[in-house]
Recover the amino acids of this structure.
């Protein structure tokens, strides 16, 4: 496996990274937890049981990569108590894991947890550096990794470039954002600074959060002469948490494809993508009234997942007994919905059935009924892993309303026929 060779990119490190004596934070008392059969101590570090799904997905992706490349070196840039690092070693069979947490008081705790992985100590190492400094040092020493996991807080994007410099060509970047307030369009100046996207309020803001994160990474990769491909993207309501597994590839991305602006018309409910060269010609087909068109971007507008990679993850989860035979129904359902979402015919965003029923001025039909009707009319459609009462489809809002009214009328006629009989 060839290491990623870059042309001395400029890496910006904030001045506060030079602090020599970070404040000491004492660990709290022992708090033993168990996840996927692994016992570990959180010791008062920040830990969420709800994030286990994100860790499951990361381990599955790492194991698929190890199978295909016969190598797996992992850098866990913000490891906390070290549970992700432990699972990369024990479940994904990582050849080496570098577990880093900026707080040196957690060193013994992390080492003790990694000692439970059942592997030799030469296969892991614990460090206590600022994540950006560590990533930069790895790049300068030409010590590249197959997978870099950055479980950051808020909308901190300062690590994006240094992470891309430290990952191997075709390697994986597992990125995080937990800033739901900004993805909801309430701080457009902040998202512009963090991810290069001016985000306004939209009815599918939680999907916008994923597209904002991927788009920011794509922009940074382009500066270095590379591009990223989303292998999967996952939204979790707690936090909220936006996670994206991206593969770094050689060559700049053609920005006319899957990277542009998204508009939503508050008048008719339709959404559309707008390319850079059409910015001055924005308008909705419904002859929108002034102020009805809401525009955000630039954002990633392509598929959130790669079908073949997700299929490999599903097969591996079945092999491990995580899903199938009545176990892991929640994960199995989510993964299959994500595979359906990866249909290239499906556009960005989703349509909430509550909005359809409001515009149709009627009670909402069952989601499965709507999906079946859309498929019969030749539309691409699937559930959304982000919103349970929503669909992703290339059918416009106007046609969805028409379809819903037709279904209601057919149901009423059937009911009247039964009563008369």
């Amino acid at each position: 496996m060839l290491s990623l060779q870059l042309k001395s990119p400029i890496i910006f490190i904030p001045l506060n990274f030079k602090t020599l004596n970070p404040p000491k934070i004492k660990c709290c008392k022992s708090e033993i937890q168990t996840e996927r059969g692994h016992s570990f101590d959180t010791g008062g570090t920040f830990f969420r049981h709800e994030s286990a799904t994100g860790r499951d997905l990361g381990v599955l992706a790492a194991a698929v990569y190890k199978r295909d490349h016969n190598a797996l070196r992992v850098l866990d840039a913000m490891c906390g108590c070290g549970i992700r690092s432990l699972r990369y070693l024990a479940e994904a069979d990582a050849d080496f894991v570098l577990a880093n947490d900026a707080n040196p008081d957690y060193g013994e705790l992390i080492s003790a947890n990694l000692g439970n992985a059942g592997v030799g100590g030469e296969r892991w190492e614990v460090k206590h550096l600022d994540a950006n400094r560590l990533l930069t040092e790895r790049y300068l020493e030409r010590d590249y990794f197959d997978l870099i996991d950055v479980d950051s807080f808020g909308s901190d994007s300062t690590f994006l470039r240094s992470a891309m410099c430290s990952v191997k060509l075709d390697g994986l970047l597992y990125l995080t954002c937990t800033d739901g307030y900004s993805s909801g369009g309430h701080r457009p100046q902040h998202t512009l600074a963090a991810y290069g996207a001016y985000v306004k309020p939209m009815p599918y803001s939680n999907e916008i959060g994923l597209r904002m994160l991927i788009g920011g990474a794509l922009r940074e990769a382009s500066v270095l002469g590379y591009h990223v491909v989303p292998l999967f993207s996952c939204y979790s309501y707690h936090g909220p948490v936006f996670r994206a597994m991206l593969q770094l590839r050689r060559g700049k991305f053609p920005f006319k494809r899957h990277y542009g602006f998204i508009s939503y018309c508050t008048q008719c409910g339709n959404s559309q993508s707008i390319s850079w060269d059409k910015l001055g010609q924005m308008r909705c087909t419904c002859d929108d009234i002034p102020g009805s068109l809401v525009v955000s971007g630039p954002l990633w507008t392509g598929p959130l997942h790669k079908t073949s990679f997700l299929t490999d993850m599903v097969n591996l989860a079945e092999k491990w007994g995580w899903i199938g035979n009545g176990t892991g129904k929640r994960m199995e359902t989510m993964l299959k919905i994500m595979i359906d979402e990866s249909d290239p015919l499906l556009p960005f965003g989703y349509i909430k059935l509550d909005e359809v029923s409001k515009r149709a001025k009627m009670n909402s039909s069952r989601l499965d009924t709507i999906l079946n009707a859309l498929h019969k009319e030749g539309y691409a459609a699937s559930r959304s892993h982000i919103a349970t009462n929503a669909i992703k489809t290339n059918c416009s809002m106007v046609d969805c309303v028409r379809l819903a009214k037709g279904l209601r009328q057919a149901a009423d006629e059937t009911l009247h026929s039964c009563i008369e009989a």
